Amino acid sequence: MNETNLLIEAFKNTIYKVAGHGKRNIQILKDVLHEVDGQTDSDVYGNGKIIEEFQAKMAAYLGKETAVFFPSGTMAQQIALRIWCDKKGLKKVAYHPLCHLEIHEEGGLKELHHIEPVLLAGKDRLIELDDVLNMNEEIACLLLELPQREIGGQLPDYETLEEISSYCREKGIKLHLDGARLPEILPYYQKSAAEVCSLFDSVYISFYKGIGGIAGAILAGDKAFTEESKVWKRRHGGDLISLYPYIVSSNYYFDEKLPKMQQYYNNAKELAELFNSCHAISTMPLVPVSNMFHVHYQGPKEQVESVLVELYELTGVGLTSYLREAIDGTCNYEVSVGDQYATLPKEKVKQVFQLLDEKMKRFNII
Amino acid sequence: MNETNLLIEAFKNTIYKVAGHGKRNIQILKDVLHEVDGQTDSDVYGNGKIIEEFQAKMAAYLGKETAVFFPSGTMAQQIALRIWCDKKGLKKVAYHPLCHLEIHEEGGLKELHHIEPVLLAGKDRLIELDDVLNMNEEIACLLLELPQREIGGQLPDYETLEEISSYCREKGIKLHLDGARLPEILPYYQKSAAEVCSLFDSVYISFYKGIGGIAGAILAGDKAFTEESKVWKRRHGGDLISLYPYIVSSNYYFDEKLPKMQQYYNNAKELAELFNSCHAISTMPLVPVSNMFHVHYQGPKEQVESVLVELYELTGVGLTSYLREAIDGTCNYEVSVGDQYATLPKEKVKQVFQLLDEKMKRFNII
């Protein structure tokens, strides 16, 4: 077995996991259905009490007129941008170079919708007001992702958001929020979801990230926008006869996880501090602004892998199942703090980070 | 309340239903999960034992090299046609004027894939060999739907299928099967699924029609085709992190319903004969070739509605919850025979059709 597989194996065998909500197994759905009356009618092609009530609940939470449930954010966001492009008669949008649509969707936006993206800012930093002001090209829509996942979940100042929003309104540019992890950033901004969303014309949120559901997304905006999105949802093949397995689980875990977002955020800050206290380890951002951050190890992947395997075997605590290699030869991974951190005994945490610090001191820093 | 709503209400209040498998409620999913171990791992973006095993099972059933699970047939079929068009470098396909892609998908094939359809045959009949031979335009792919749902689930002779298949292979035209209801036609053709599919280059089947699942579809073909379909599945937003709620239910009801297809077919023929014995009622086709057919009433919708409401109240047996108005002023609806027909006492059946016949004699035939 190579180091990568040894790490996966060692992680699997640990008793405690530092990040996440727990295993993605079928129990997640069984727990939900245990609470649902079997006589509840299915939704039928986007209609029915079960989907309409959840859509209304999410519209209220997001402070938007209406909301539509989608099987995926990929589908919801392509459609949002398509609607705004069609409205303006201009197939051009702007987003971050590490936007989900740019790097995780096999070019769906271009291949299916023939929309051309303008990439704003650099791969290592957030979109700032100047990036928007200095754009040379006319666009129909600007997409902002909060937090910006691929750079560790960073966030702009709230004032920057307000300024970008004002500028876009003035210039007739629609502003779309990739809010896959919107609930996770509210403790930092100290704002309600509706307050943040009021800066945007349309917003998408996900139910399997911080919320811990199975899959599914909500797209919200004004009624004309969401009605058009339903037509595109059918065209994409997303208007399933029944979406209720995702709806009931989204609703269940939304209610369960929402009150815990402050706790996840606090735990993320505590955990990041512990990583930063270790030799040759740092987090990005240094102080998290949500429940997520990236952990950077100043060492080569294979060496860090063997350090982690030893650590897991000695302590029974798993930090990560994978490492990504960076161009400079160091390595890193993503942490999303969820329910599992709170189950970890304090003395275990102390032991893990003492050992990690010692072990990291033993090899040469890149 | 108008007659239409009275019919819905009266239907709901009946004890017995003649058609279908039963209510589409959440119990459908609860029954499945009761049988599944909660520790079973979720699929993750198209990977994992739970999805791979089901795909392999379906590939074997359909006699194809590989199969891919999709959230919907709408998505699967657009993608199949897109792949065949790209392969030939020609964005033109042929299908029936009442094809699902033409009438139920908000023009997704045109709007997302810019594929132009050539409509073969008339709205009131099947595609025959001559329609294919006499096509003036070059196409990349021909789609055949078996059975042709919108005209009562009619089927061509098996020899016609073989001839169309030979011709398409000779001419380099890909042949795609809309086999949403494929299991339902096998008792009539007296063929295995794999035998029918061997005439086609690609095939889609559905899990919420005759199979009685919640949603979901399989697209099957050779490996190059299915691998490309996975890329398009991601572009469409159909590559959900977890599709298992649909996979476990599709698998469960596939195993449960497949052995009953002969029974549904026999019952459909018996039931059609009963309708045809009534005054001013006939079925299309006259003798069903699957578990489905349409029932045509030679009378105006409102009058037939009040006949049915009376019938339901007198007998406690529901025939249909809706009627469609035809251009000639008559009305009709679709019947798919499922599990419920077998629960209906024989004397009830006799009573219902005697009464229906008497009532239909009372009003003027259009």
TrEMBL record, chains A, B:
One of its GO terms (molecular function) is L-allo-threonine aldolase activity. This is Low specificity L-threonine aldolase. Residues 41-292 form the Aromatic amino acid beta-eliminating lyase/threonine aldolase domain. Keywords: Pyridoxal phosphate. Belongs to the threonine aldolase family. One of its GO terms (biological process) is glycine biosynthetic process. Transmembrane segments: none annotated. The lineage of its organism: Bacteria, Bacillati, Bacillota, Bacilli, Bacillales. It holds the Pfam family Beta_elim_lyase. It comes from Psychrobacillus glaciei.
